[in-house]
Amino acid sequence: MTEFEGRRRMAGSAAHVYSVAADTRQLDAWLPGRAVVHEGEPPGLDVDVHSPDGADRPPVVLTAQRDRLRLEWGRRTDVHRGWLQVTSAGDDSSLATLNVAFPGAAEDVQSTVEESLRRLANLVTGNG
Length: 128
Description:
Elements: E1 2-11, H1 14-22, H2 27-30, E2 34-38, E3 45-50, E4 60-65, E5 70-74, E6 81-90, E7 93-102, H3 106-125
Antiparallel strand pairs: 1-7, 2-3, 3-4, 4-5, 5-6, 6-7
């Protein structure tokens, strides 16, 4: 399993970036791999994850922590997990930090994280 963390500055307030990222209708547009969201039992949503290597993984639980501008997904026994934290960077911009862990080579995981943050930035600016 490889773990990687990436950061990207994005136009818009931290609350706006988080709102776009947490929109369950858009998770598949930016999360690493492919995600299918199912309404789950509280405290989160069940998400079917198909990792970037194409392998299907067991559903993970997605938990949104709006007060902390944080999303987390995974299960204690699952090898596919991650989180997104959005913070204010001043001047109506934000810093999005994405941390993921899943099987794969470090170069592949790094490129997947960078691509996910790029897609999220495009969604935030309306270019996604």
